[in-house]
Amino acid sequence: MTREIDALGAQCAQLSALLDELSDEDWDRPTRCPGWTVMELAVHCEGMLQRLVGANSEEVEGSPEIDRVGYYAYDPDGPRDGEDPNKTFSEVIQQRVIDEVGGRSGEEIRASLSSAIDSALAGVRTIPGDRVIKRSGHPRMRFDEFIASRVLEFGIHTMDVGHATLRGERLHPDAAQIVKEILDGRLDAELPKGLGWDTRTFILSGTGRRRLESNERFVLGPLAAKFPLLA
Questions:
Q1: Count of C-beta atoms within a 10 Å radius of residue 76
Q2: Which among 154, 112, 169 has a CA at the least distance from the CA of 7?
Q3: Alpha helices per DSSP H over 34-167
Q4: Average pLDDT score over the chain
Q5: Cα(156)–Cα(170) distance, rounded to whole angstroms?
Q6: Using one digit for the tens of pLDDT, what is the confidence trace for 210-221?
Q7: For residue 209, is pLDDT > 80?
Q8: How far apart are CA 89 and CA 97, in angstroms?
Q9: Is residue 141 helix, strand or coil?
Q10: Could you give the CA distance from residue 143 to residue 3 in angstroms, rounded to a whole number?
């Protein structure tokens, strides 16, 4: 699991450095995640770190049922274990983040996120990568496979914050490789060579941050219907 933890740590460092550059006005900027501000995305990342180790990382009985690719087969509009059945999972997460913002300033969130990064990275290094866990709404999976999914989440949201604040879509190369591997698994096919995409373009297209051009859809053929590759 060293590879996944190192990539997560490198990407968290990218996010932390980016947040250090933000002005007071930057925190309230809208992002390309509909309905989410920069501050709310930062708090979302803080919450993911705080919940990375603890009850959700305890060992469960049984064999793994999914891996890092299968993790993203979930329905974001469906309910989750123990959550309000009248709200989609996306709505539940967004409301929780709004509550967690709690009137804090950007400086307070920056400091809290930095502390959460240190605690989370220290905690995950104490957990065996082959431990089987179960996250709400997902089948059983290995802990190292779940950490890989966090690399994707932090990588994409760092890019989102950089895009919203015009400071560049920062994705660490080690994180980019893991994100690409997950998207490759979701596509489950070779991209046509004539497409000419680099890793960044594939990641933006695969995560729905970039719309396919008409000529790209033509080259992709039936594969175009799979985009975006994440729900």
A1: 14
A2: 154
A3: 38-50, 89-101, 106-124, 143-164
A4: 92
A5: 9
A6: 999 999 999 999
A7: yes
A8: 12
A9: strand
A10: 13
Contact by Cβ (8 Å): 57, 119:
no
Q: Which positions ≥6 away from 203 have C-beta within 8 Å?
A: 155, 156, 159, 171, 176, 179, 180, 183, 209
Q: How far apart are CA 151 and CA 122, in angstroms?
A: 16
C-alpha torsion sign, points 160, 142, 206, 87:
negative
Measure the CA–CA gap between 168 and 162, rounded to whole angstroms: 5
Element (H, E) at 14: helix 2-20
Calpha distance 217→204 (Å, rounded)? 15
Where b means 16+ CB within 10 Å and e means fewer, 108-141 reads ebbebbbebbeebbeebeebebebbbbbeebeeb
Identity of the amino acid at 168: G
Where is pLDDT greater, at 91 or 204? Answer: 204
Residue 72 has pLDDT above 60, yes or no: yes
Residue 51 has pLDDT above 80, yes or no: yes
- Report CA torsion sign: 56, 62, 67, 70: negative
High-pLDDT (> 70) share of the chain, %: 93
Does the pLDDT of residue 143 top 70, yes or no?
A: yes
pLDDT value for 64:
98
Contact 142, 131 (CB under 8 A): yes
pLDDT (0 to 100) of residue 119: 97
53 pLDDT band, cuts 50/70/90, is: very high
